[in-house]
């Protein structure tokens, strides 16, 4: 038997319906915040992620699906959404003449070669938003407000928003220096990855999952102490707005995020999931240098990505009620060939009028069809018989009250519209 690859899943049945419910909420919230849907390719030139996400990140150094295609081009299945969107933004010269920011969202499959476990897969979905073109803190607020309210609209309680700032370039460089000085005497006590990070990108040591409980990391210098006045002011102003908008957050001065491209505001969203503890549902921040790094002009930007599968896991775990509409409105019952003809056009007619309509497809006896009805529990039955059909009459039965009524076929849709 051929089975699905490790770390992937088939999505069907109730799971598919839950996703449709979540998709609808995400779509609606993005529309009201004026973010437009964008879809970029599943695979891109490998170089995009090397330059965009960063050579030294776990994502690129250990987790990518990279291969040569038949034309000998190095191709990578996208491990995240931002690099592709920035590539799209530059390639289509959307930076020219920017009178409004470009605001987009995606809800797409991502690929990372990770060790599969609960909430961590090799093929997974990320929902994300990007706002390109504005350096105003209103843009940061736009993104955080959408993120925060999305979780509220999904009905997830106990979600924690952590924020921090890396400050501008000067602040970040000062902090990096302080961190390197602090870590130098003890770097041998950290994991081998951290020792590599020490030379390549020391900030990322704070994001290490191996040394997460080490006192060395816990006592590391705080980013806040190395912010210059301007960066500090910007950060404080953002907090004022979060308060104004009743957005609850906590500050975490050791938050750095795993990717290379952030500056100023960064944030993460966590939830407590039974059996998994506190897990990261998503993260984002400002990335003012990425567009330039990928060959465009200097364009400020801010964005967020949500782990879609983990969010559904967290919703499941906190017993969120997925409002799933999968009830069948009408089941049409027939036996004879002439009844079947009427059933076929009535089924089509009701469906085109928006009723979720089903009928028998096995040539079952009436008794067997009633068994089907017991199983799928439609709201109404339409029962056909040759004698009544000669007078263009059908029997409609309310499957809840079990009351029956004979009505004219021409009145069937309006009859059902009044009741469903
Ligand atoms: P983690 O620290 O959990 O590895 P990350 O820093 O690699 O996360 P990001 O690149 O910031 O994750 O992606 C944003 C979100 O996408 C994460 O917070 C998480 O919810 C989700 N995510 C990341 N990797 C996976 C995966 N392999 N399977 C499922 N969801 C994932
Ligand atoms: Mg990861």
Map the helices and strands.
Layout: H1 13-32, E1 36-37, E2 43-45, H2 46-54, H3 58-62, E3 65-68, E4 74-77, H4 82-91, E5 102-111, E6 123-132, H5 137-153, E7 160-165, H6 169-183, H7 192-200, H8 215-218, H9 229-244, E8 250-251, E9 263-273, E10 277-286, H10 290-293, E11 301-307, H11 308-317, E12 330-333, H12 337-352, E13 357-359, H13 366-376, E14 380-383, H14 386-389, E15 393-398, E16 404-408, H15 412-419
Parallel strand pairs: 1-5, 7-8, 12-13, 12-14
Antiparallel strand pairs: 2-4, 3-4, 5-6, 6-11, 7-9, 9-10, 10-11, 14-15, 15-16
Helix pairs in contact: 1-5, 2-4, 5-9
The structure holds adenosine-5'-triphosphate (ATP) and magnesium ion.
Task: Characterise this structure.
With 420 residues, the chain is of the alpha+beta class. The chain has two domains: 13-168 and 228-317, 2-Layer Sandwich (BirA Bifunctional Protein, domain 2); 330-419, Anticodon-binding domain (Rossmann fold), CATH 3.40.50. Helix content is 38%, strand content 22%. It has helices at residues 13-32, 46-54, 58-62, 82-91, 137-153, 169-183, 192-200, 215-218, 229-244, 290-293, 308-317, 337-352, 366-376, 386-389, 412-419, and strands at 36-37, 43-45, 65-68, 74-77, 102-111, 123-132, 160-165, 250-251, 263-273, 277-286, 301-307, 330-333, 357-359, 380-383, 393-398, 404-408. The strands form three sheets. An eight-stranded mixed sheet has the order 1-5-6-11-10-9-7-8. A five-stranded mixed sheet has the order 13-12-14-15-16, with helices on both faces. Helix 1 (13-32) runs antiparallel to helix 5, helix 2 (46-54) packs across helix 4 and helix 5 packs parallel to helix 9 (229-244). The longest helix has 20 residues, at 13-32. The chain is elongated, with a radius of gyration of 28 Å. The two termini are 45 Å apart. Residues 80, 112, 114, 119-121, 124, 126, 258, 280-283, 305, 307, 309-310 line the site of adenosine-5'-triphosphate (ATP). Adenosine-5'-triphosphate binds next to strand 6, strand 10, strand 11 and helix 11.
């Amino acid at each position: 038997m051929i089975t699905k690859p490790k770390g992937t899943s088939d999505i069907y049945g109730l799971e598919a319906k839950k996703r449709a419910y979540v998709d609808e909420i995400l779509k609606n919230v993005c529309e009201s915040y004026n973010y437009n849907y964008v879809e970029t390719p599943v695979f891109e030139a490998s170089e995009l992620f090397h330059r965009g996400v960063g050579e030294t990140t776990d994502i690129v150094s250990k987790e990518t699906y990279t291969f040569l295609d038949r034309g000998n081009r190095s191709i990578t299945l996208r491990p995240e959404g931002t690099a592709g969107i920035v590539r799209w933004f530059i390639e289509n010269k959307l930076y020219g003449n920017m009178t409004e920011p470009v605001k987009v969202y995606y809800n797409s499959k991502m690929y990372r070669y990770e060790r599969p476990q609960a909430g961590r897969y090799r093929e997974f979905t990320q929902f994300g938003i990007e706002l390109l073109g504005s350096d105003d803190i209103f843009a940061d607020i736009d993104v955080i407000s959408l993120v925060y309210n999305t979780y509220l609209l999904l009905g997830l309680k106990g979600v924690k928003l952590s924020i921090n700032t890396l400050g501008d370039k000067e602040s970040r460089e000062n902090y990096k220096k302080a961190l390197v000085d602090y870590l130098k005497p003890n770097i041998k006590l950290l994991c081998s990855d951290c020792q590599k990070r020490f030379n390549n990108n020391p900030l990322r040591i704070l994001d290490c999952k191996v040394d997460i409980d080490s006192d060395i990391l816990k006592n590391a210098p705080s980013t806040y102490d190395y912010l210059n006045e301007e960066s500090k002011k910007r950060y404080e102003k953002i907090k004022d707005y979060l308060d104004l908008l009743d957005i609850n957050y906590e500050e975490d001065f050791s938050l750095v995020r795993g990717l290379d491209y952030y500056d100023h505001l960064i944030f993460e969203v966590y939830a407590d999931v039974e059996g998994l503890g506190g897990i990261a549902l998503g993260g984002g921040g400002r990335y003012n240098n990425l567009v330039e790094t990928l060959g465009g002009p200097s364009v400020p930007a801010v964005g967020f990505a949500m782990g879609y599968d983990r969010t559904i896991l967290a919703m499941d775990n906190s017993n969120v009620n997925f409002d799933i509409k999968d009830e069948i409105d009408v089941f049409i019952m027939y036996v004879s060939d002439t009844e079947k003809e009427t059933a076929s056009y009535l089924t089509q007619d009701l469906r085109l009028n928006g009723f979720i309509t089903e009928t028998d497809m096995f040539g079952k006896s009436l008794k067997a069809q009633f068994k089907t009805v017991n199983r799928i529990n439609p709201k109404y039955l339409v029962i056909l018989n040759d004698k009544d059909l000669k007078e263009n009459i059908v029997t409609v039965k309310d499957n809840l009250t079990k009351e029956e009524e004979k009505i004219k076929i021409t009145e069937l849709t309006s009859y059902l519209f009044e009741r469903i």
